[in-house]
Amino acid sequence: MDPQLIRDYFHRFMYQPKDREYPDLCQLPDLNEQTLLENLRARFTAGHIYTYVGSILIAVNPFKFHPIYNPKYVKLYQNRRLGPELPPHIFAVADAAYHCMLKERRNQCIVISGESGSGKTESTNFLLHHLTALSQKGSHGSGVEQ
């Protein structure tokens, strides 16, 4: 085995900056309970309430208003794939489900779960707001009427 390859591997995974936050927990070089919680804490402290785990979205209730749900964000997340292109957001999940429904012509399901007070109702409201914007006729959507 190439010694340089081994050094590069260990350097990449063992010497990550401690203050780095990952928008997708799958990117964590060492995924365990401590690194997961530290990453969520760092993102929350930085004002990032959403984090992906692959195609799953974790939302941490900020218990305050964040200006990330206005029409600018509705347009920003339209026709975008989940992934590193844009920061994690409930609109990205809604958009992915909506376009998968149109493309595959199959029902889609989004599960929102959490403890009491975790923000499920607010998340559902934002999700429905985005789906409504996507389904309206005109430049914002395809005009799904069913």
UniProtKB/TrEMBL annotation:
Q: Name one GO biological process term.
A: intracellular signal transduction
Start and end residues of each Myosin motor domain:
20-146
Gene3D superfamilies listed in its UniProt record: Kinesin motor domain
Q: Name one GO cellular component term.
A: actin filament
PANTHER family named among the record's database cross-references: UNCONVENTIONAL MYOSIN-IXA-LIKE, UNCONVENTIONAL MYOSIN-IXB-LIKE PROTEIN
Record's protein name: (California timema) hypothetical protein
Which species does this protein come from?
Timema californicum
Chief site of localization: cytoplasm
Please state where this protein is localized: Cytoplasm
Checking InterPro entries in the record gives: Kinesin_motor_dom_sf (IPR036961), Myo9 (IPR046987), Myosin_head_motor_dom-like (IPR001609), P-loop_NTPase (IPR027417)
